[in-house]
Amino acid sequence: MPEPTVFELSSPGRQGAYFPEPDVPRADIPKSIMRDDLPLPEIAEVDVVRHFTRLSQLNHGVDTGFYPLGSCTMKYNPKINEETVRLAGFANIHPLQPIETVQGAIGLMYELQEWLKELSGFDEVSLQPAAGAHGELTGVLIMRAYHQARKDHKRVKMLIPDSAHGTNPASSAMSGLKIVQLPSDARGNIDMEALCAECDDTLAGIMITNPSTLGLFDEHLQEVCDCVHEAGGLVYGDGANFNAIMGISRPADCGADVLHFNLHKTFATPHGGGGPGSGPVGVTAELAPFLPGPIAAVIDEGSEEEPPLYSLVNPKKSIGRVKAFHGHFGIMVRAFTYMMMLGGEGLRAASEHAVLNANYIQARLRDTYTIPYDRICMHEFVAEGHWEDAPGIHALDISKRLMDFGIHPPTNYFPLIVPEALMIEPTETESKETLDVFADTMIKIAEEALTNPELLQTAPHNTPFGRLDEVKAARELVLCCWLPENKEE
Amino acid sequence: MNFPKELKYTKNDEWVRVEGDDGTIGITDYAQDQLSDIVFVEYLVDVGESIDKGEAFATVESVKAAADVYMPVTGEVIAINEDLPDAPESINSDPYGEAWLIKIKISDPAELDDLLDADAIENLERDH
Fold first, then answer.
1. Interface touch B88/A475, C-beta < 8 Å
2. Which of A173, A227, A235, B60 is deepest in the core (most CB within 10 A)?
3. Cα A404 from Cα A442, distance rounded (Å)
4. Distance CA A332, CA A130 (A)
5. What's this model's pTM, rounded to 2 decimal places?
6. Chain A, 209-248: which have a CB under 8 Å from a chain B CB?
7. A412 lies in a domain?
8. In 3-state terms, what secondary structure has residue B78?
9. Residue ranges, chain A, pLDDT below 70
10. C-alpha distances out from residue A51 to A61, A274, A290, Å
11. pLDDT computed for residue B103 by the predictor
């Protein structure tokens, strides 16, 4: 244990803050709801600060090292985003303030919607959803509402490729739809034959991640969308991998009817414990009436002297609110700042470099690691973390060993269609030097797997904690460091 | 990998032990090895329910992934292994014995003909 818990630092009677005597009468609190067993730590301010500073230093983040966690787009988050979000006009406002006093904030939401529309090709965007999976659920509920509004009640089937994020079937199941899994073909595309066989009048739609979780642009995307549309179904685009296509390919142009964005991935806002996500949803004009509100809108264009007047509107057949107030506004400010700093050309360059970086690593690792779907990849690729002549080594051992070199592991064991999957997404914000250090380290670990497998199986060795007992962690769900006395067994 | 000769198998790595009209169902040694340490077993059915071939009747979760277990043949559930949720690790240690998942009354014995024998599943083309 490199750092004790804050409770273990407690010393009876020590205080971090002294409160003045109350200058109002004490309220009479009923005895029945008073407790005398509140074992909070008794600790000085300086020790609190040191404790949490030390804890923060035990962590690995984008600000401390390379973080190639596939499908999570752990790109560097520019610090200017933190400056703009702290501007008084954004930081010191309240969601219930009269709208004429927060025109700048609503204007930012409007502009962000416009940028997302331009990047995706959709007609309307709602910024409400709290994060990616929430955006998915919102999008699927919109698809369902569309079919129901047309009294097309038999459309209950959602097609989901076997490479999909697990949240896709979850969102569909939560929306009351029946899920049919589609296999991938030998090149990692959706199997067209299996797709066509399912395209009938019970089809609600399909959920496509493009590029897929294999990091591949589906070569039949147009045919897939046409096939689904001809059967009367809708195409859901999972925008988790949008970082590969900004300014290059627009999902709506390719046939998607609805798509969620992950502002926290693509547009460089903190995530993964660093902050909340934001999962705006874009739709075609046909689906726009079903979007969740409120949506920022211009209600008076203004003139050369007068700025436009912004307001919030609710679409006519809206599925209803999916989030309190305006969604995660702070994340919107950060994402919009990122877009403004890069501009259209810059966003396209970000995607191009994300793709280049992934292909560079793939090329460097191709001779050492099996790449099951080996073709030009997009912003990420999937390798297999095992070798026939190192039978005791699994993807997990490689990942744990990477931590010894100060590198965050790739995504493990996903997608499920690749055995011992290592899903690697470097992002565009890494230099060639960093990519080379990673590739060299991966090659070194592959050699160790043959010469000294135990080194991998017992890794990590250089981290504050060694190999954690994941089985115990999964089976014994105890999150408390102690149990209240009367609950002890 | 161990595939007992007396059992019938699905391509999805379920096994059936047939005794008269009854069948006992579990997952194969290969399946438990691929999943690695099993940490949860959840039943999706109750005793008395009739379940179609191909429908999921349980979810098995490991530290790596969660997998649905499907009915190899249609039948009525006559017993579920009540001990298993408290000792999911027995799937890793004894997948063909202690760690059976459910027992069913087989509706149509002809469906058994579609299943694989031990040689066939052993020779299945595997990724890994």
1. yes
2. A235
3. 12
4. 11
5. 0.89
6. none
7. no
8. strand
9. 1, 274, 480-489
10. 18, 19, 49
11. 97
